[in-house]
Amino acid sequence: MEARVAAIRAGAAGELVWLVEHPPLYTAGTSAAPGELIDAGRFPVHRSGRGGRYTYHGPGQRVAYVMLDLKARGGDVRAYVCDLEAWIIQTLARFGVTGERRPGRVGIWVRRTDRGEPQREDKIAAIGVRVRHWVSYHGIALNVEPDLGHFSGIIPCGVAEHGVTSLVDLGIPVTMAEVDAALRATFDEVFAGADKVRCG
Fold first, then answer.
1. CB 119 within 8 A of CB 112
2. What is the pTM of this model?
């Protein structure tokens, strides 16, 4: 990823998005606090240069590493993060799921009223980015059908008072291929469209 970022900066390669699926692991962003790693021996722990805290990656989760030339796209990092949020929100909408932003909480959230429980909010997608010389890398992680129990070894993104969910956990029986098709379609809507969704 870093080699590709350097090539984009040098004009030797074009922008690129990698859609990947990791084996079970935890990653620590630049703001990760030691106390948020609850079970250090459960899965490998990788230090990453992205922003944010601890997160989980594993089978059933679509990770998108987004390498874009932000200088050519207006040089606005906040607008870029907003675009990532909009990308996830529009992808979820393809499956009838309403994803929402929350002030002070990174990622995309859904409201839950199922299972006879009081209304709550769960996180369905994480965002962690880094920018080097105006080229972005790292990106998003969307929970399609991961083992949600694997998140219990960390305090995901430092938020202990809310849970995590996935599309399948919400009762949406989608495949990774269907999610990838939606991500590809909505990426163009958000990042290449004339009517871009912006944060208010």
1. yes
2. 0.91
Q: Give one DSSP letter per residue of 152-179, joined into a string.
A: GGB-GGG--SSEE--TTTTT----HHHH
Active site residues: 157
In the three-class reduction of DSSP (H, G, I as helix; E, B as strand; rest coil), residue 139 is classed as strand
- Quick one: residue 190, left, alpha or beta (phi over 0 = left, psi -120 to 50 = alpha)? alpha
d(CA 81, CA 129): 8
Residues 6+ apart with CB under 8 A from 111: 98, 100, 119, 120, 121
Spatial separation of the C-alpha atoms in residues 80 and 25, rounded to whole Å? 26
Q: Considering only CA atoms, which of 103, 106, 104, 150 is closest in space to residue 124?
A: 106
* Number of neighbouring beta carbons within 10 Å of residue 73: 15
What is the tens place of the pLDDT at every residue in 126-160? 999 999 999 999 999 999 999 999 999 998 877 77
Beta strands in 86-167 (DSSP E): 100-102, 105-112, 120-132, 135-143, 163-164
